[in-house]
């Protein structure tokens, strides 16, 4: 079970059961990454998300590269936050498409966790707009909670995001080589 993370949830019972009132609680692990692709100086990004059932079994993976104008007018300091938000949005949309009613989201990026849990006040409108989008998605669930965890606890989602970036680099190199 790749995501047996019983200790992260404060409401888990001593038996380790992740059900509340007979309704299953699913888990969303997500990660967004971006990096400079090298000589071209282009920044590329990838997102990964894994939805797990209450027993920790992966039931759906989301892996995709962010292509096109994903940076829009965001400043460099907030690009990591933007791809993290995009990965959470993709994961929540995937969970909604599976008709999941209760979900716990596991995040390793501290600023995102602080914004989503409303511990930090959003100062920039661009960030606020996307955080609001996440909050609207979360309201579509009967219950949605977010937990801050160590990077090792989102390792699988990290690998999905890294794979999405690597595939973009490979495609770019193949396309350059073909020319």
TrEMBL record:
* Signal peptide as annotated in the record: none
Q: Name one GO molecular function term.
A: nucleic acid binding
Domain RNase H type-1, chain residue ranges per copy: 40-163
Q: What InterPro entries does the record point to?
A: RNaseH-like_sf (IPR012337), RNaseH_domain (IPR002156), RNaseH_sf (IPR036397)
Pfam families, per database record: RVT_3 (PF13456)
What SUPFAM superfamilies would the database entry show?
Answer: Ribonuclease H-like
Spans through the membrane: none
Q: What name goes with this protein?
A: RNase H type-1 domain-containing protein
């Amino acid at each position: 079970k790749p995501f047996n993370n019983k200790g992260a949830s404060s409401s888990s019972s001593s038996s380790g059961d992740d059900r509340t009132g007979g309704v299953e609680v699913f888990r969303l692990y997500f990660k967004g990454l971006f990096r400079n692709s090298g000589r071209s100086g282009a920044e590329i990004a990838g997102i990964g998300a894994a939805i797990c059932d209450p027993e920790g079994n992966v039931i759906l993976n989301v892996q995709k590269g962010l292509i096109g104008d994903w940076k829009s007018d965001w400043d460099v300091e907030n690009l990591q936050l933007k791809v993290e938000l995009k990965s959470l949005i993709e994961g929540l949309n995937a969970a909604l498409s599976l008709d999941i009613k209760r979900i716990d989201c596991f995040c390793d990026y501290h600023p995102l966790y602080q914004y989503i849990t409303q511990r930090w006040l959003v100062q920039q409108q661009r960030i606020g707009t996307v955080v609001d989008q996440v909050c609207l998605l979360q309201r579509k669930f009967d219950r949605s909670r977010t937990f801050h965890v160590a990077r090792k606890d989102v390792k699988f989602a990290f690998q999905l995001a890294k794979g999405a970036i690597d595939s973009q680099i490979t495609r770019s190199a193949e396309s350059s080589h073909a020319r």
